[in-house]
Automatic annotation (TrEMBL):
Keyword Iron assigned: no
E.C. no: 5.1.3.13
Xref: Pfam families: dTDP_sugar_isom
GO biological process, one term: polysaccharide biosynthetic process
Name of the molecule in the record: dTDP-4-dehydrorhamnose 3,5-epimerase
Active site: 61 (proton acceptor), 130 (proton donor)
Entry's Gene Ontology cellular component terms: cytosol
Pathway: Carbohydrate biosynthesis; dTDP-L-rhamnose biosynthesis
Organism ancestry: Bacteria, Pseudomonadati, Pseudomonadota, Gammaproteobacteria, Thiotrichales
Its biological purpose: Catalyzes the epimerization of the C3' and C5'positions of dTDP-6-deoxy-D-xylo-4-hexulose, forming dTDP-6-deoxy-L-lyxo-4-hexulose.
Record-linked InterPro entries: RmlC-like, RmlC-like_jellyroll, RmlC_Cupin_sf
Sites marked Participates in a stacking interaction with the thymidine ring of dTDP-4-oxo-6-deoxyglucose: 136
GO molecular function, one term: dTDP-4-dehydrorhamnose 3,5-epimerase activity
Family of this protein: Belongs to the dTDP-4-dehydrorhamnose 3,5-epimerase family.
Length: 182
């Protein structure tokens, strides 16, 4: 597998080895030893799968207690995936990294604990799968606006149309007003 560093050192793009022929393809998406060989030690406790329609934006979500590291990938369609550093003591606090994930490019994205996370569906629909390092704890879930001016995320909105949001995401505040990690 190929590990691609980003401008935020803890956030990684991971390209698995894909073996394909006229029958299709095979790839290994998780192998604890292979990740450990790259000094990536992760203990996953929950797997999630969501399907979203074109123009849906989910995020930016995080858990202030029981924070979740997430290894994310797309198995159908295309999304733009974003990780935002919300660790106040970090030199990259408030910075973000975005990457296109698709069923065709097979890329995975490592979003460590201490980051807010969200994605925008660019294709007709997308199946999004991710492994988490902590269990979902809705009482600790927090959200930051997808278009918070203090983040200035450059979302690749299709036809410059505003994304469709959940009520929770539509009511989220800016980073300056968010409960963040120290």
């Amino acid at each position: 597998m190929n590990i691609i560093p980003t401008k935020i050192p803890e956030v990684l793009i991971i390209e698995p080895r894909v073996f394909g022929d006229e029958r299709g393809f095979f790839m290994e998406t998780w192998n604890q030893q292979a990740f450990a060989d790259h000094d990536l030690h992760m203990n996953f406790v929950q797997d999630n799968h969501s399907r979203s329609a074109h123009g849906i934006l989910r995020g930016l979500h995080y858990q202030i207690e029981n924070p979740q590291g997430k290894l994310v990938r797309v198995t159908s369609g295309t999304v733009y995936d974003v990780a935002v550093d919300i660790r106040r003591s970090s030199p990259t606090f408030g910075q973000w990294v975005g990457v296109e994930l698709s069923a065709d490019n097979h890329r995975m994205f490592w979003v460590p604990e201490g980051f807010a996370h969200g994605f925008y569906v660019m294709s007709e629909s997308a199946d999004f799968q991710y492994k988490c390092t902590s269990l979902y704890a809705p009482e600790h879930e927090r959200c930051i606006r997808w278009d918070a001016p203090d983040l200035a995320i450059d979302w690749p909105l299709v036809n410059d149309e505003a994304p469709r949001l959940s009520a929770k995401d539509a009511e989220a505040g800016n980073l300056a007003d968010a409960e963040v990690f120290q």
